[in-house]
Amino acid sequence: MIAEYDARLWYDQIPLRRSVRAYDSRKVPDDTLDRLRPFLSGFSGLCRGARGVLLDDAGDVFTGIIASLGRITGVSTVAVFIGDTSVPEHMESVGYLGEGVILQATSLGLGTCWVAGTFNRNCTASRVKLGKNEKVVAVTPLGFPVEKEDAGHRLVRSLANSKKRKPLEAIFGGLPPEKWPPGCREALEAARLAPSALNRQPWFFEVTHGEITLSVQGAGSGYGSLKRLDCGIAMLHFEVAAKALGLEGHWELLKPPHVARFILHESGSGISQARG
After folding, report:
1. Which residues are paired to 54 by β-bridges?
2. Which of 60, 236, 247, 249 gives a 20 to 30 Å CA spacing to 273?
3. By its UniProt entry, which InterPro entries does this protein fall under (predicted)?
4. Cα angle vertex 70, ends 69, 75, to 5°?
């Protein structure tokens, strides 16, 4: 049976989620992990081509990294996000599924951090059973944040935050906001808050009558791109907010440079206003 998520619960976690790199070494209780496991196998058809696996005693996933500044420390449990490369949209699927796991973990009081580059990929791959066309795409530590970060972790956090997020006006086009259905602005704001590599926010939303189209901005929009991983994360944020606020619709995947189109349902709140 496919897991079902609580849209209001996850929506409430979006502003609370932050990247945590320093943990206090406490083991995550089994009953907490049991509330996370169902989402590793997917919670929507959009999770096709993606899955997650939990690894215990997995601090070695973050060892052997040349750059030690800001390295993940004190972690025991790691969620590994795996993509099936035979599915063209596997990167966006991994982003979508992985962010669901992260929002659920946040609701359980756990710290997390998307890591798609600086981890021991060979070590991680050796500890999970990969299918013929599968690859490890990213990981997140799962644990309890330390009360006070050291200077190295504080520096990394300040560098990550040094580039402000784009304003909402920079990530959408199409209809003016006064013609949007109720809940659309909040859903776009939730997408704006999605984490992305180097905080680059490589997404653009085109709002038209009855639908919102998500595309990759700039170069690197093809299948398998890390930018599509980031867009998958933004897709989930938009969907979660839309569901929580009564903006009914569903995603339809598209070919590059587009990513997906959110089609508003006729019964969705405010759809007639969007067409007015």
Report:
1. 79
2. 236
3. Nitroreductase-like (IPR000415), Nitroreductase/BluB (IPR050627), TM1586_NiRdase (IPR029478)
4. 125
Q: DSSP character for 111?
A: B
CA distance 236 to 242: 10
Domain that holds residue 45: 7-161
Longest CA pairwise span in the chain (Å): 58
> 49 and 179: one domain?
no
Predicted confidence (pLDDT) per residue in 56-66, tens digit: 999 889 875 54
Query: What phi and psi values does residue 212 have, to the nearest 5 degrees?
Result: -130, 120
- Count, residues in the chain: 276
Instruction: Indicate if 102 and 216 belong to the same structural domain.
Output: no
Q: What is the pLDDT of residues 209-260, one digit of tens each?
A: 999 999 999 888 999 999 999 999 999 999 999 999 999 999 999 999 999 9
Residues 105 and 242 in one domain: no
Residues 25 and 157 in one domain: yes
For the entire predicted model, the pTM comes to 0.91
